[in-house]
Amino acid sequence: MDDIRSKQQNRRIFLKAAGAAAGTFALSALPFMAYAATESAGKLKIGTIGSGRIGATLGEIWLKNGHQVMFSSLDIVHDKALAAKLGPNARAGTSREAAEFGDVILLAVPYRAVPQIGKDLGGVLKGKVLIDASNPIVPRDGEVGTWAREKGAGAASAELLPGVRIVRAFNAIGFAKLPEFSQRQGERVGMPIAGDDPKAIEIASGLIREVGLEPVLIGPLAMGRYLIPGTALGGERSADEIKKIVATLK
């Protein structure tokens, strides 16, 4: 008990110094904590690895919130056109340039590409906060997709991207709905997330709130196995509904 109290106290001190408005219990004591955005963090540089539907949509929303975004994909012509359309805080580059540029990385690629990204960019990504929006889809991703689903998408990403501060998010709701959420009135739709790094969770949670969603931490990165299409957590649900579903999964 003394050890738990000590961890809780240390956690409170950390969050106060970071400027978070709430969330002063240890992760182990409150698995469903929705972390407050770190108000003192200011605007971020965000690199997207993948600038398709998810990458382009989220990048545009974060640009509107004052962040800088570098888009990257296998099609630099597309990325340059996208950046030119979205204004002076948008730019385009290679995946390596985006990884080097970003304080935060959004990974939004077909899952079959993740092993090569780990090999090519692992050194650059190590220690960075990465929002993992990539889902293993077996018909599309083949053996890698099968392996990742059997292992669990969170654990698989952690193995392919060692040393990266991963938060799985944006796996449960289709891209087309994302621009609508910031305009909605009333209770926010919940966004289930999973991660191991408290600071990465805080940063990701702030960016999720800017999209108009309420982040709900369902547990450590290993719980990312449930953050893929076809699970009970897919679709639009309130934060309370997400918590009730997760309680049945453990």
- Give the spatial strand order of the biggest sheet: 3-2-1-4-5-6-7-8
List low-confidence stretches.
1-41
In CATH, the architecture is: 3-Layer(aba) Sandwich
Q: In the CATH hierarchy, what is the superfamily? A: NAD(P)-binding Rossmann-like Domain
Amino- and carboxy-terminal Cα gap:
23 Å
Strand content: 5-15%
Helix content: 40-55%
The top level CATH class name: Alpha Beta
Shape estimate: globular
* Total E-strand runs: 8
What do the pLDDT scores average to?
Answer: 86
Order of helices and strands: HEHEHEHEHEHHEEHEH
Radius of gyration, in angstroms, nearest whole number: 17 Å
Number of helices: 9
Task: Summarize it.
This protein is an alpha/beta fold and 250 residues long.
List the helices and strands and how they pair.
Blueprint: H1 2-18, E1 45-49, H2 53-64, E2 68-72, H3 76-86, E3 90-92, H4 95-101, E4 104-107, H5 114-125, E5 129-132, H6 138-151, H7 153-160, E6 165-168, E7 190-195, H8 198-211, E8 214-219, H9 239-249
Parallel strand pairs: 1-2, 1-4, 2-3, 4-5, 5-6, 7-8
Antiparallel strand pairs: 6-7
Helix pairs in contact: 4-5, 6-7
